[in-house]
Amino acid sequence: MSRRIEARPNRKGIRMSNADVRWFRSKIDWWMGLILVALPVVELAGLATALRDGNGEAITSMAVALGTVAAIYGLLLIPVRYGVSSDRLVIRFGVVRRYIDLAAIREVYPTHNPLASPALSLDRLAVRTDDGTLGTSLISPAEREEFLSTLASGAGLVRDNDRLVRPVDREA
Question: Which residues pair with 127 in a beta bridge?
């Protein structure tokens, strides 16, 4: 029995369904994974200790800290993935989605830029559009080569060593 997936408009009126998008998960650096696992484990251990000791103030503060970590993970971290549709690149991190028109992409190149971004690895790709300084998004797809091939074919970009670039229009 197949399930029909209907495209629903989001707040921006963009109609997409998961059937229309090829998704790629984020690569996770070992140290980032360690931090992401250790943080809630430490919070849980602190809460368990506070519960065992019956310390009401510590129970409250540890419960708030654990709730904050859970909220951040749920709202901004799970999942981090990147989708390529017929006309858009979708960058999803938690409940947030950023849409980039494939036609607006000028260049994709490797970087290790540590700026905050929806990427769980420093082995990143910068996706540059015509939007000036704010027009660069940093992502880290785990299946990098497959992602680049999919993006290149969908966006009409060409491979230039380890980069994707928009071909120069020789008609002008």
Answer: 108, 137
pLDDT in tens, the chain (172 residues): 333 333 445 445 555 556 689 999 999 999 999 999 999 999 999 999 999 999 999 999 999 999 999 999 999 999 999 999 999 999 999 999 999 999 999 999 999 999 889 999 999 999 999 876 678 999 999 999 999 999 999 999 999 999 999 987 655 5
Q: Give CA–CA dist 59/64, Å, rounded.
A: 9
Distance, in Å, from the CA atom of 15 to the CA atom of 6, rounded to the nearest integer, reads: 9
> How far apart (Å, rounded) are the C-alpha atoms in residues 59 and 65?
10
Residue 92 CA: distances (Å) to CA of 40, 84, 128? 22, 11, 17
Residues in Cβ contact with 34 at an 8 Å cutoff, skipping those fewer than 6 apart: none
The answer to whether 172 and 116 are in contact (CB under 8 A) is no
Core vs surface per residue 140-155: b (16+ CB within 10 A) or e: bbbebeebbebbbebb
Domain chopping of the chain, boundaries: 24-172
Q: What is the DSSP letter of 5?
A: P
Q: Is 157 exposed, middle or buried (0-12, 13-18, 19+ CB in 10 A)?
A: buried
